[in-house]
């Protein structure tokens, strides 16, 4: 997900899917209360299924020779490309619905997700052996997708629901407090966000993202240069948020739409790894340009996970209770 609604969805999905990943990778089982959640959108299942014998080397940055523009000029062109400053300011709430990747299962019915360091090491060793022998087939993996619905309301309220196997994971943030219901971990009581989850939720941007009205939001925007991304030039912007956190946002040099954004690093396999979300499949919704596919990648982990937006509702009637503590 994303800058605008994109970073909100990606960040929130990362939290809630931790409770469904283990169950989703093996529909025949139900995760126990002690099962260790795996961190999506880039899940352990996908990481192990596609892992190679050695760590993936991060691609080198290829600079791009682009016309010199100020941060203000890029910000204004981005707002215009996305549908206009005033049009976005009229959006007070939004509902997104679709499907998201939640891991993979093998055709032989085995479970890919791991729940301990020992199992993870063993799984990696088995994958190395299979790769060396040429017995691991990429097509032997089947993507599991789950439906989701996310409600967003200014300034920073979110509610995410992910149904699975007759149960629904719920995650709510009212702008100050957050709660989660994780039945897939055997936890049927509403729990408060952890301090880390609260920090992550608080770092998400409003509906229109960090560039629109950036000064009012306390976001400092700086141009760090140009880069080639998938064969296209893009401006790399440094965003210093009001909290002091640093983010980087890449804007296409021709369309001036968002290309990708990075997020707070996630700890995975004992180290902090950079998370990036790519914005794809832009479509027009009531005059606004909205990416309908959000691809999230984790540094050093092959492959990616995607969120597919199938329906977008602008300014839907959302009752305030939608963002209260779940009952």
Distance between the termini: 27 Å
| Total count of domains | 1
Q: In CATH terms, what is the architecture?
A: Clam
Proportion of residues in extended strands: 35-45%
Overall number of strands: 13
Task: Quote the CATH topology.
Answer: outer membrane lipoprotein receptor (LolB), chain A
Shape: globular
Alpha-beta classification:
alpha+beta
Share of residues in helices: 10-25%
Largest sheet: 13 strands, antiparallel
Rg over alpha carbons: 20 Å
Q: Can you say what the CATH homologous superfamily is? A: Lipoprotein localisation LolA/LolB/LppX
* Low-pLDDT segments, ≥5 res: 1-7, 14-57, 106-117
Number of helices: 8
Succession of helices and strands: HHHHHEHEEEEEHHEEEEEEE
List the helices and strands and how they pair.
Layout: H1 4-16, H2 21-24, H3 44-50, H4 71-81, H5 85-89, E1 93-106, H6 117-133, E2 141-153, E3 157-164, E4 167-173, E5 178-182, E6 187-192, H7 195-202, H8 214-217, E7 220-229, E8 232-240, E9 246-252, E10 258-268, E11 271-285, E12 288-298, E13 305-314
Antiparallel strand pairs: 1-2, 1-13, 2-3, 3-4, 4-5, 5-6, 7-8, 8-9, 9-10, 10-11, 11-12, 12-13
């Amino acid at each position: 997900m994303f800058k605008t609604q994109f970073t909100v969805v990606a960040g929130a999905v990362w939290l809630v899917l931790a409770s469904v990943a283990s169950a989703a990778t093996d529909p025949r089982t139900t995760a126990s209360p002690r099962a260790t959640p795996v961190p999506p959108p880039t899940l352990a299942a996908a990481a192990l299924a596609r892992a190679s014998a050695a760590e993936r080397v991060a691609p080198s940055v290829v600079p791009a020779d682009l016309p010199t523009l100020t941060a203000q000029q890029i910000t204004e062109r981005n707002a215009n490309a996305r549908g206009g400053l005033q049009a976005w300011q009229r959006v007070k709430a939004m509902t997104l619905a679709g499907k998201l990747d939640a891991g993979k299962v093998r055709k032989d019915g085995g479970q890919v997700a791991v729940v301990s360091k020992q199992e993870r090491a063993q799984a990696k060793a088995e994958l190395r052996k299979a790769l060396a022998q040429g017995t691991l087939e990429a097509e032997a993996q089947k993507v599991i997708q789950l439906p989701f619905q996310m409600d967003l309301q200014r300034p920073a309220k979110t509610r995410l629901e992910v149904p699975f196997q007759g149960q629904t994971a719920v995650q709510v943030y009212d702008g100050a407090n957050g709660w989660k219901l994780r039945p897939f971990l055997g936890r049927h009581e509403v729990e408060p966000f952890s301090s880390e989850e609260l920090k992550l939720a608080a770092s998400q941007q409003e509906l229109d993202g960090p560039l629109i009205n950036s000064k009012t939001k306390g976001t400092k925007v700086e141009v760090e240069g140009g880069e080639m991304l998938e064969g296209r030039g893009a401006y790399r912007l440094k965003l210093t948020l009001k909290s002091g956190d640093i983010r980087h946002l890449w804007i296409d040099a021709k369309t001036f739409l968002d290309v990708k954004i990075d997020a707070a690093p996630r700890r995975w396999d004992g180290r902090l790894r950079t998370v990036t979300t790519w914005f794809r499949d832009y479509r027009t919704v009531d005059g606004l340009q909205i990416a309908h596919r959000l691809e999230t990648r984790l540094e050093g982990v092959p492959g990616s996970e995607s969120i597919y937006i199938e329906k977008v509702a602008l300014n839907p009637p959302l009752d305030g209770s939608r963002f209260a503590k779940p009952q």
